[in-house]
Amino acid sequence: MSPVVLGKKFQKARELLGAGRYVEALSLYATLIKEFPQGSIEYGSAAMQSGDLDLGNRILEKVRSREPNNATLLLKLAEIYGNGGLHAKYRALLSEAAGIEPGNLNLQIKLATVLTRTNSVEEARPAVSRCLELDPRNELARSLSAHLDRRENKLAEAEQQFRKLLAAGLEQPQVRYSCYSELAQILDKTGRFGEAMKLLEEGKTFARQALNLTANRKGFHQLHETLAAYAHSLPKNILETWGKSFPPRERSAVNSVTFLTGSSRSGTTLVEKILDAHPGVAACDESLAFGIIPQRVDVTAPVIPAQRLNVSRELYVRNFANVLGAPVTGKTLLDKNPSQTVWLSAFLRAFPELRVLIAIRDPRDVIISLYFQDHRNTNYFTLEQLARHYASVMDVWLAIRECEGLAWMETRYEDVVADMQKEGGRVTGFLGLEWDESQMRFYERNREKTVLSNNYSDVTQPVYKRAVGRWQAYERQLAPILPMLEPYCQKFGYA
Question: 263: closest CA among 360, 154, 193?
Fold first, then answer.
């Protein structure tokens, strides 16, 4: 096959993949790499994108076995795994690559960043120190070091470092915004609420100007609002309708699955970690195993063949096990994914028996918590935009919970922190399990696992109550959007 023909066929495979025709795309890739083995990395990446993590992993492992000491290759593979949601694999390969080239600042920075955001201070500090040894003036390494100081409650030292960084006129926009966010959190924790909000406003103004994210997120808003409108259009007996076209006798036997969702910053991570400590539960923290559902299930189709839905069910469970890196046989699967609340209807098409657990928190506390977070998707959001985003997510839930026959439960963050065993026992019972004493020490298990949200330091210690009613310190700033939140306060019992 000539290089020109080969190139055209690879382009065809990419187009099939982009069109969601995964079986055809992967079949073509499998044929092409026999002729051109160098395309195996693209084939493995395509398998990951299609949602078949098991196939992608097998292909990429073969590539890795050919050059196990090639740091550049390991980094490339690590990034593919990371994009596919196999975060443990991403971290392991990144660590290997950094070990092969200890003088490579780019590799060391990547490793330090992931360890700082997802692991303990003790694990992350040596990696950050290594970066500073290679380049004492590196902006990101200095900000990561200050971040670790904040997590160790060395607030005065961290504040001094962040102020120095901001005063220096940082070149990297994302690092600069992170410093604004980190410093604002210190000011908030030390009771300087007005100064915290003023600094955060300055940071967000900078983000809107420097990061140019507003235009990129227009589609983000539109998608959420479209899915919310679709959820509201569903008749209350839709689950019965879907169930008739996909009855229990035609469904493949898979693990019991519970979807833990709700708005971000509503306590989903805390609930997930409490449940994950149960020996009968296998929990995933915002895994991409869920990603195969929306891309393979056309939620608007009147009828979806049972065979197609069963492929999605079985692939989902295999991906879940791949993400965890452990067997899930006999365990209840708990998928914590607040960012995917709007796709709940698609999940229910493939898993009509799905249990839905919704984390609820005072909407005003949710908005303040979101506002203070350093999250690329929302860094530039105003309070009004955050309220609009919250509404679009929770509107989907308010519509879906009206569906007849839905197995659902709401759990309030305030109830969890007030009496963890009582509320934890209630949600454990919803999963069909008995409370286990190991759940009282959930934070010990969390120190051994990667935490993907921004909550590592929160969910690796016993439950605390200081975040309840946090919004009251910012009531003046929230005043313009309180009318937008009032309907949700009423519906969820926070009036």
Answer: 360
Each residue's pLDDT tens digit, 199-258: 999 999 998 888 665 555 666 677 777 877 888 888 999 999 998 899 999 999 999 999
Pairing of strands 407-412, 257-262: unpaired
pTM to 2 decimal places: 0.88
**Which among 212, 229, 247 is the end of a domain?**
212
Residue 51 lies in a domain: no
Of the candidates 164, 193, 212, which is a domain's last residue?
A: 212
H-assigned helices in 152-217? 155-167, 173-189, 193-210
CATH number for position 161 = 1.25.40
In this predicted model, what pLDDT tens digit does every residue of 52-61 receive, in sequence order? 888 999 999 9
Q: Classify residue 107: in a domain, yes or no.
A: no
Domain interval for residue 185: 138-212
Burial class (CB in 10 A: 0-12, 13-18, 19+), 38: exposed
Same domain, 304 and 204: no
Q: Give every CB contact of residue 160 below 8 A, 6+ residues apart in sequence.
A: none
- E strand or H helix at 411: strand 407-412
What value, to the nearest 5°, has the Cα angle with vertex 224 and ends 218 and 230? 135
Looking at the structure, tell me whether residues 153 and 277 fall in a common domain: no
